[in-house]
Amino acid sequence: MPGLATLPPSGDSEACILLFTLTPILGRLARSCRRGSWKPLTVAVLAVALAACAALPLPDLPDQVPARWRQGDAPTAVELRSWWKAFGDPTLDALVERALAHNLSVAEAVARVEASRRLAAASGLTHLPQVGFHTYSEPTPDSSASYFQFGFDAKWELGWFGRSESEARIARGSHEAALAQAQAARVSVVAEVVKTYLELRAAQQREVVLAPLAQSAQRRSELMATRVRLRLAAAGELARAQAQQAAAQAAVLEQRSALVRAGRQLTALLGEVEPEAWLAATQDLPQLGEAGISSAPADLVRTRPEIRRAEAEVIRMAGELGLARADRFPRLGLGGALTYASKVIGHTRLSDAAGIVTFGPAIEIPLFDWGQRENITEARHAELAASLLAYRRAVVEGVAEAETALATLEQQRQRELALRQAVAPLEREAKAAATRERLGLGDAFGRLDAESAFAQARLDLLAAQQDRGIAFVALYKALGGAPLPHGDAP
User: Fold this and answer.
1) Helices 38-52 and 12-32: crossing angle, nearest 10°?
2) Quick check: is 490 in a domain?
């Protein structure tokens, strides 16, 4: 399996135990021998033992990122970390900055990053000497008196056999996962702010187009009622005109509902409760222009949060495997204590306190556990293999999502271009119909039909522009694009 070639087989554990067991024996032989030829051999065996029991190397991550995008780049490239500025809207830029500073999901993720950083720092202090103070009392067997003891104790567990490195990797993996989660929160918040802002401005522009369209539908219904009253049209035509009028009014109300919904969503993304009044002011839908990407496929590995999280899981599981492997070897350390004991006679009388100093090695050697540690080690091997597969899956899915987003963006660009070309002739026709009506060469129905066709073309173009902007958002969300805090390079 890719990435597991650097992992030694579990049989190395027995060799390491054997070397660890033989080393003190050789040391005693060296001390008992007058000649010094045994000492270099003892040192060599000890060096080999420690080298064999060192931490496992991190597995190689599989490289499946293509050299270039298959869909190609658009004419003008956009920088990944500030991609929303391609819309050229200062209001949108300000909203993104405010959301990154005040969004509650981002703040929560940042707090978790700080917690993981502190835990990682605490993990690095585990194998440093620890000193404590203790007191306790113990009665004599006949309960006639008691002993009051107090003193200091110290211990220093040596993180040999890869234990300290493995614990550090577990803490590092957890911290990297928290960083990836924070980046995912930023990416999601930026994408939602831009998407919701586009929906807000598009709803405002649709309301601008639909309001006169609803008035035209009402005028058509009134004219049709007059024609029916004069027996120039059938009652069914009036019913259809009235249905069109109701549909036009419902469309206007739908856009107003969309405005309220988008405003509330933006307010929540900004971490606030009450929407701001300036969001209700009608503005044009931001135009994207000919924008592309400036990143290469390999940048996905450094920026996409899902891939960074998968990589962090590989690091963490490598630490778990190293820790399980270390649990099969002796735990070594040094310990000492300075204890004073005083005999308590009666209620208040104390005898003279006597102190005792203890110091020596602390050794815990695993002997027999019915294969429990062996099973745990093999389980960690399997979990590490699964994390490598999850990393491969994250890379493959990231590339596929980005390629799909690129293709969708190009399709939406072509759709917008085609609809834009259709708007100009319909606008000219609407003006011509109004001129013919004014000159008496046409009637109001012809003008209303031409205006309705022009309005519908504008609505279709607005929808295409909105869809293209959302496709652009989806592309940069797939690329993991969002600003990173200072010092947190992807």
Assistant:
1) 160
2) no
Residue 350 or 273, more confident: 273
Verify that 30 and 100 share a domain, yes or no.
Answer: no
Helix pair angle (104-123, 90-102), 10° resolution? 40
In this structure, is residue 486 part of a structural domain? no
| In a shared domain, residues 19 and 144 | no
Q: Residue 153 pairs with which residues in a beta bridge?
A: 132, 337
Residues 347 and 403 in one domain: yes
- E strands, 40-129, where? none
268 contact partners, CB below 8 Å, separation of at least 6: none
The answer to whether residues 25 and 66 belong to one domain is no
Q: Left if phi > 0, otherwise alpha if psi is -120 to 50, otherwise beta: which for 267?
A: alpha
Alpha carbons 282 and 287: distance in angstroms, whole number:
15
Q: Which amino acid is at 361?
A: P
Nearest to 403 by CA among 76, 156, 72: 72
- The C-alpha atoms of residue 120 and residue 111 are separated, in whole angstroms, by 14
In contact, 309 and 361? CB cutoff 8 Å: no
Q: 9, 30, 53: which is the final residue of a domain?
A: 53
SS3 289: coil
DSSP-derived secondary structure letter, 440:
T
Based on the fold, state whether residues 414 and 330 are members of the same structural domain: yes
CB 213 within 8 A of CB 337: no
Q: Which of 268, 260, 273, 283 is nearest to 92 (CA)?
A: 283
Does a structural domain hold residue 228?
yes
* Conformation bin of residue 292: beta by default, left when phi > 0, alpha when psi is -120 to 50: beta
pLDDT digit string (tens) for 202-235?
998 888 888 888 777 777 777 778 777 777 777 7
Q: Which helix (H) or strand (E) holds 133?
A: strand 130-139
- Residues 208 and 257 occupy one common structural domain: yes
Q: Are strands 349-350 and 354-364 parallel, antiparallel or unpaired?
A: unpaired
What six digits make up the tokens of 411? 């399709």
Nearest to 490 by CA among 295, 319, 314: 295
Q: Coil, helix or strand for 99?
A: helix
| pLDDT at 50 (0 to 100) | 53
276-331 pLDDT, tens digit each: 777 778 888 898 877 666 666 777 777 889 999 999 999 999 999 998 998 888 88
- Judged on CB neighbours under 10 Å (0-12, 13-18, 19+), 235 is exposed
Is residue 484 within 8 A of residue 490, CB to CB? The reply is: yes
- CB-based contact 311:176 (threshold 8 Å): yes
**Taking a C-beta distance cutoff of 8 angstroms, is the pair 29, 38 a contact?**
yes
Domain that holds residue 270: 58-478
Q: Position of tokens 């609505």? A: 459
Q: Flag whether 243 is in a domain.
A: yes
